[in-house]
Amino acid sequence: MIRGLLLALAILVAAVPARADEMTFFIMNRAPYGVVIELSDAASGKVWPGGDRIYLLEKGEKKSVAIDCTGGARICYGAWRNGDDRTVWGVGPDRDLECSDCCHICAHGPGKGETIEIEP
Question: Which of 10, 14, 19, 38: CA 20 to 30 A from 27?
């Protein structure tokens, strides 16, 4: 009886979807030209801002971008020179490059922040 109750409780807990958390990225463009940036979660396929849109930062511009993500998800950035997708940072425009420091873990709780600096 108790074993069945514990099993039913474990199945109920496993069926509860993960809740979304908010994470803020502080993006600074230190390159001498405009850059384009996207954020992505490769595991889920989710992309921010999504819908064939991108974040555009002009030379010297700073932006604060808040996203809803699942706690524990690995969020990576891909950036490239505006008009030239051969000059890239992070995972790049196709999200297929390896990087050592372009991914951050979505943390539980609102207000978690990460900084991205685009430099030539």
Answer: 19
CATH number of the domain bearing residue 58 = 2.60.40
5, 93 in Cβ contact below 8 A? no
Residue 108 domain flag: yes
Digitized pLDDT (tens) for each residue of the chain, 120 residues in all: 444 433 333 333 333 444 568 888 999 999 999 999 999 999 999 999 999 999 999 999 999 999 999 989 999 999 999 999 899 999 999 999 999 899 999 986 555 678 888 886
- Three-state secondary structure along 57-80? ECCCCEEEEEEEEECCCEEEEEEE
Residue 1 falls within a domain, yes or no? no
Residue 10 lies in a domain: no
Whole domain around residue 74: which residue ranges? 19-118
Q: Please report whether residue 14 resides in a domain.
A: no
Expressed in percent and rounded to 5, the helix, strand and coil fractions of the chain are 10, 50, 40
pTM of the model: 0.78
